[in-house]
């Protein structure tokens, strides 16, 4: 569904685990980037993913959800599994994590967020020299080249 409560809680958890409290403000806001080139809205911030899926099913709406094949083994995949386990013992855990992240924003108001600029390669919004998509593509290309080298080395 994208930008639902489950996604926001994962992002809050990842930012806390990385010690990146500066990004908590951006990930907990309903509207982000209103001062930049592309504002983003999260109207489903407090809606659980399963509620959105059930609504789409009962209203016979087309619902499409795919997960990146690398996601389960990525850092976010472990955070997702942890949250699902936590939610089984405390169903309100996801919303509690979001609200906790929102409260941390007020505490660290003197921390500056990275300035949103443009990716040097593709021009999309980014807080670093390269956007996340370009960084991921670089990683995939490097992995492909590494595999080519291994295959060439292993074949007689």
Largest sheet: 2 strands, antiparallel
Helix content: 40-55%
Parts with pLDDT < 50 across at least 5 consecutive residues: none
Please provide the count of β strands. Answer: 4
Number of structurally distinct domains: 2
Name the helix and strand elements from N-terminus to C-terminus, one letter apiece. HHEEHHHEEH
Please work out how many helical segments DSSP would assign.
Answer: 6
Mean of all residue-level pLDDT scores: 82
Through-space gap between termini: 48 Å
* Percentage of β-strand residues: 5-15%
> Rg to the nearest angstrom?
19 Å
Q: Largest sheet, order of strands side by side?
A: 1-2
What gross morphology would you assign?
globular
Instruction: Indicate the structural class.
Output: mainly alpha
GO molecular function, one term: tRNA binding
Protein name: Cytoplasmic tRNA 2-thiolation protein 1 C-terminal domain-containing protein
Keywords: Transferase
Pfam families: zn-ribbon_14 (PF16503)
Mind explaining what this structure looks like?
The longest helix is centred in the C-terminal third of the chain and has 23 residues, at 132-154. It contains six helices and four strands. The chain has helices at 5-17, 24-28, 49-58, 75-89, 93-107, 132-154, and strands at residues 31-32, 40-41, 117-118, 125-126. A two-stranded antiparallel sheet has the order 1-2. It has a two-stranded antiparallel ribbon with strand order 3-4. Helix 1 packs across helix 4 (75-89) and helix 1 packs across helix 5 (93-107). It starts with a helix and ends with a helix. The protein is mostly helical. 13% of the residues are buried. The protein is globular, with a radius of gyration of 19 Å. The chain folds into two domains: 5-113, no CATH class; 115-156. The model has no long low-confidence stretch (mean pLDDT 82). Keywords: Transferase. One of its GO terms (molecular function) is transferase activity. One of its GO terms (cellular component) is mitochondrion. This is Cytoplasmic tRNA 2-thiolation protein 1 C-terminal domain-containing protein. InterPro entries: CTU1_C, Ncs6/Tuc1/Ctu1, Rossmann-like_a/b/a_fold.
